[in-house]
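Q: Structure for this?
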Amino acid sequence: MEHEAPILENAFGIPWLDFNLSNVFMVIVTTLIVLVLTILGARKLQMKPKGVQNFMEWILEFVRGLISDSMDWKMAKVFLPLGLALITYILTANLLGVITMVSVGDTLWWKSPTSDPGITLSLAVFVILLSHYYGIKVKGTKKYLKSYFQPYPVFLPINLIEEFANTLTLGLRLFGNIYAGEVLLGLLVSLMMHTNALGFVGGAIPMLAWQGFSIFIGGIQAYIFTMLTMVYISHKISSEH
Amino acid sequence: MALLAAAIAIGLAAVGAGIGNGLIVGRTIEGIARQPELKSQLQGTMFLGIGLVEALPIIAVVVALLDMFVFR
């Protein structure tokens, strides 16, 4: 497509280390936005919340419901900050690319960070590694290794493939949804801007509809990512079979 | 050729997503009709199910886009 990516090749002289500077920039922007919103939501705590504090309390209740659906709450209290961080981060990241996309010259600088497969796969690998870590920590190494042979030892390759499949689909689901949405947004913009006046008028309503739909999909994908994180962690740490 | 491959990929992805989502939403409507007080819980589970089922068709969309814009 017409948008190039600003890639910094061979950073620090290491031959395989390339950074996509647009990703670095957008990840920093997303982190700053989430940080500012949550700090604003938590200052001057009042018993009757209003404004941003109300919104933060609603998100916390939502994540708490999400966690207690998959795991027993006493064991799972520690995962509330993880769930909150994941859902706010992914929601903000998904929404940033819907509002606007900015390219300077020929390179694309402002987009959703989650429209890059590297970022979503990194999140998925991080979450799956975390679930393995908690599995070993809560159940002990022997029981964790034995769980690969449940219910019958012949299931071992299936359990191993399940780990890889979970990681890949968790990452690629988020990437695919956001990337496809962004490509279509770009195509609609080029319909409106780079063809004649009929294209402009005809493309206005689909553009509005598609932006609305992308906001909805961004929310749903953040919810699904967080919910699946909790489900995978609960599979590793609960042992009532 | 690349356009034909992209069209086949998207077409099959649409069939898969359509049938899968249709089954999920149909069963959800049946469930709501049986027990209207569980409406919001069933709806939440429905959205989760749709997100899961649409994962592979969306990956097929990405493959089709890749095919259209990277190969001649």
